[in-house]
Amino acid sequence: MSANPGEPARHDPFSPEALDPLPCFQAWFAEARALEPNDPDAMALATATPQGRPSVRMVLLKNITADGSFVFYTNAQSRKGEELRANPNAALCLHWKSLRRQVRIEGVVSEVQSQQADLYFRSRARGSQIGALASDQSRPLNDRVTLEARAAEISALYPAEVPRPPHWTGFAVHAHTIEFWQSRADRLHDRMLYTRIPGGWERCLLYP
Ligand SMILES: Cc1cc2nc3c(=O)[nH]c(=O)nc-3n(C[C@H](O)[C@H](O)[C@H](O)COP(=O)(O)O)c2cc1C
């Protein structure tokens, strides 16, 4: 089963020719972007406290680096940001319903360079930039009026360029494992787990 008609077999995670999960992910992601009606870039991000208490929420995948890091942007002072500062281990899960596919990624997180965060922040819509400044993400909010008043104040304060708040930044999950799951008949699904080893990846088929 090819990942995409016309794609080389090495981009199909189940092909014997696939040695690197990153082009396989890119091929699946391209198909998801073409087919999923909503948020093909949405992924669940799991974090945990140093004591191992987990939490999970959705974030958007904004970039995949050549070295296999999956980048999202958020408020570093949010619950997820604080958990990642105390425990940089994270897991991601993407589910593309129309394609009946799942990808699970586990790895260690680091913050992106501030220039990269600036670049991405500048590419966002003005309303989103103002929202990033106005929101004390994950903190209690008295009422919605307070949030809207803060957004209006910030908009008046910065009629031209909105500066990136230093705590709003990108996090890169450097993948240690990437698992591809494809639904098959009778729940005999395909699963292929890629694990990073020095200089490359090893892979292993898993029971569904
Ligand atoms: C589809 C979807 C995409 C989202 N993308 C992001 C995102 O990229 N960054 C972000 O900070 N929050 C995003 N959110 C909101 C988070 O799920 C979450 O509510 C927020 O970041 C606070 O999480 P925390 O309190 O665990 O830190 C998204 C929510 C949904 C439903």
Q: What portion of residues is helical?
A: 25-40%
Give the tally of structural domains: 1
**Series of H and E elements:** HEEEEHEEHHHEEE
Structural class: alpha+beta
The CATH architecture classification is: Roll
- Termini, distance in Å? 17 Å
Pick out the low-confidence regions: none
What's the CATH class label?
Mainly Beta
Strand-residue proportion: 25-35%
- Corresponding CATH superfamily: Electron Transport, Fmn-binding Protein, Chain A
Bound molecules: flavin mononucleotide
Largest sheet: 9 strands, antiparallel
| CATH T-level topology | Pnp Oxidase, Chain A
Mean pLDDT: 96
Total count of strands: 9
Radius of gyration: 19 Å
Q: How would you describe the shape?
A: elongated
Explain briefly what this protein structure is.
The chain has helices at residues 21-35, 79-86, 114-123, 126-134, 144-157; strands at residues 42-48, 54-60, 63-64, 69-75, 89-96, 101-111, 168-182, 190-197, 200-205. With 208 residues, it is α+β, with helices and mostly antiparallel strands.
Describe it.
There is one protein chain. Helices cover 27% and strands 34% of the residues. Helix 4 (126-134) crosses helix 5. The chain has one domain (9-129, 170-206): Electron Transport, Fmn-binding Protein, Chain A (Pnp Oxidase, Chain A, Roll), CATH 2.30.110.10. The protein is an alpha+beta fold. It has helices spanning 21-35, 79-86, 114-123, 126-134, 144-157, and strands spanning 42-48, 54-60, 63-64, 69-75, 89-96, 101-111, 168-182, 190-197, 200-205. The chain is built from five helices and nine strands; from the N terminus they run H-E-E-E-E-H-E-E-H-H-H-E-E-E. Strands 1, 2, 3, 4, 5, 6, 7, 8 and 9 form a nine-stranded antiparallel β-sheet that branches. The chain starts with 20 loop residues before the first helix and ends with a strand.
